[in-house]
Write a structure and sequence with these properties.
18-stranded antiparallel β-sheet; TIM Barrel
Length: 601
């Protein structure tokens, strides 16, 4: 038996990832944090990771197959803000092909003080159990206290499950292909799904009633099973001294023998066989005063409210009309005379998704450009209140990757579902063009308080991480066939530059804008959470943006690169390097953390 030394608070703080200002506490202020501390655990045929800084279990795997993407306990206040744990007394014992890990988590913020003990065990048969026992040290109001279980997309989308209800009855269902607007399954005691031929995993929930939601509605890369059901009243008063005990148990059924991993140290990127190429979306920016320099945006978004003005700019405007009555539309139409308009987006105040009435009024007053609507909030609102596509010239919704999680690895996981939102919207909108606007790194509003921040600051905006994340966002939205994407803002803390200093993300968007009208070649990755490629081609010219999505160096091989002379420019923390090379249809790259290679051939 071996016993690890306790991890101290300073180590955990150093390991923590970038977080919104309200949660930062004493965390590092660097813009590109080091890789988080990860404890790799083995339970017989099952492997998993534990992040002490967040008390987060990630990537429960049987060989290369994910059983679960994550398990964590959440304390969320009366406005749905997450109170992050301060973790201490982490201790690990290993023996007989399994392990036992214990820790203390202190969730304290404002009036909330909740202390809980965590115990995670794994045995030689691959059974994993995560138990929490907590106590409220103060009285407070909460929207949630308890476990959330994240089911992976690749292994679950379209697969059948068997759900056990609280009365012991069972029902069969299927993880949805398209994004489900409402909970696919409720009143859960356990859920069982296939992992591989002859092998299933049962996930059992204790201590509360659970239900599942399609997390892709908010571009989270998973299906989430959580407590307490949203049909129950919230927020709830938690008296001081209240005790909470919950547990999650994962059990393999069938042939739980060890599976050999086929993962290679080198990541392979190559075109997806027989995949359909898509047009590069029109790429725009949120408007703020500032020079365009080398940028060639297709449009600039302006959020217009009653009493506002419209900027003078040579770039066509995407006008989000945040109006209160039809007189506001008449005023806006008068202000816009003589302006170049890319599109009108009618987003009336007080409506989560544009109603038919407001689309009719938009057509009455707003001329000279497509008139559309949708939501100024998340895809969820559009999915739940679907407009009639007959009356839409364009449909819109916004996105950001931080609705539920704030660490770098979760933000990377939340890239792939961006394409799923476009494909799901296409299923109920038909041929109506889809404008994803705006895309921001930080959340623009608190959905409970309805407080909007049009230019949300996030300390990662100037970092390479933001640039690498944006390569992924471009890739998935473009391969999903979005018609238009509006990113960030031209300048400012949530933009592409500040005080004349360009951020790395500016070069990513400039490289894409330069090839307006290009075709997008879908690219696959052997490790999509570690490295991806965005591939454009136009008139015989090819451009690839290859991004390392991790805080560690990665070896990457790109297949299918055009033969002949090519230019490889690598942007990383120490600056930029350029080389010319002549080669075959393969390219090998070694990329430092969050570095980006720009490849022209």
């Amino acid at each position: 038996m071996s016993l690890s030394p306790d991890l101290n608070r300073r180590q955990l703080l150093q390991a923590a990832v970038a977080l919104p200002a309200a949660y930062r506490l004493a965390l590092s202020q660097t813009s590109e944090p080091d890789a988080p501390v990860v404890m790799n655990l083995v339970a017989g045929p099952v492997t998993l990771e534990f992040e002490p800084a967040l008390a987060f279990v990630r990537y429960v795997r049987w060989g290369d197959r994910e059983i679960l993407r994550g398990i964590y306990a959440a304390v969320r206040d009366s406005t749905w803000l997450t109170v992050l744990p301060q973790v201490s007394q982490v201790r690990l014992e290993t023996a007989d092909g399994g392990f036992r890990l214990t820790f203390t988590a202190n969730c304290t913020q404002g009036p909330i003080s909740f202390l809980w003990q965590g115990t995670i065990t794994g045995d030689a048969q691959g059974t994993i159990r995560f138990e929490m026992m907590g106590e409220a040290k103060t009285s407070f109001r909460r929207n949630r206290i308890g476990f959330c279980v994240l089911h992976p997309l690749t292994e679950c989308v379209g697969q059948e499950y068997v759900a056990e209800k609280s009365d012991g009855s069972t029902v069969r269902g299927q993880f949805p292909q398209l994004i489900a607007p409402h909970q696919p399954v409720q009143d859960l005691r356990a859920i069982t799904h296939r992992v591989a031929n002859g092998l299933e995993a049962e996930v059992r929930f204790e201590g509360e009633t659970f239900e599942m939601e399609d997390h892709r509605n908010w571009t989270d890369g998973n299906f989430k099973t959580y407590c307490t059901p949203l049909a129950k009243p919230w927020p709830v008063e938690v008296p001081q001294g209240t005790r909470v005990r919950q547990a999650i148990t994962v059990t393999l059924k069938g042939r739980p023998v060890a599976a050999r991993s086929t993962r290679s140290a080198e990541i392979l990127l190559e075109p997806v066989a027989a995949a359909r190429e898509t047009p590069l979306p029109a790429i725009g920016l949120g408007y703020t005063p500032g020079p365009l320099d080398t940028l060639r945006p297709a449009h600039l978004r302006v959020d217009w409210r009653p009493g506002g003005v419209l900027p003078a700019t040579p770039v066509p405007l995407e006008i989000a009309a945040l109006v209160a009555d039809q007189a506001d539309l008449a005023k806006l139409a008068e202000l816009a005379k003589g302006r170049a308009i890319a599109r009108w987006l009618v987003l009336p105040q007080g409506e989560a998704s544009t109603s038919q009435k407001w689309l009719d009024l938009g057509r009455k007053y707003l001329k000279g450009a497509p008139v559309g609507g949708g939501t100024n909030e998340y895809f969820t609102e559009l999915n739940r209140q679907r407009p009639d596509p007959k009356w839409l010239d364009v449909a819109c919704y916004s996105l950001n990757p931080q609705v539920h999680a704030f660490d770098n690895r979760s933000l990377v996981e939340n890239l792939e579902p961006q394409g799923a939102t476009v494909r799901s919207a296409r299923a109920f909108l038909g041929a109506a063009p889809i404008a994803v606007t705006p895309v921001t790194l930080g959340p623009r509003f608190n959905p409970q308080a309805k407080v909007y921040t049009p230019n949300p600051p996030d300390r990662r905006q100037p970092s390479l991480f933001c640039a690498a994340w944006t390569v992924g966002s471009l890739k998935y939205l473009a391969e999903g066939a979005a018609a238009s994407i509006t990113y960030y803002q031209l300048a400012g803390p949530g933009g592409l530059s500040q005080n004349g200093q360009a951020f790395p993300v500016k070069y990513v968007l400039a490289a894409a804008m330069e090839l307006a009208g290009a075709a997008v070649v879908p690219m696959g990755s052997s490790a999509p959470l570690k490295a991806i490629a965005f591939h454009l081609k136009r008139a015989g010219r090819h451009r690839l943006l290859v991004a390392n999505l991790t805080a560690r160096p990665q070896l990457i091989r790109v297949n299918g690169v055009k033969t002949g002379t090519r230019s490889v420019k690598i942007r990383e923390s120490m600056g930029e390097t350029t080389k010319q090379e002549t080669g075959g249809d393969r390219l090998s790259l070694g990329l430092n953390p969050y570095a980006i290679a720009f490849v022209d051939s």
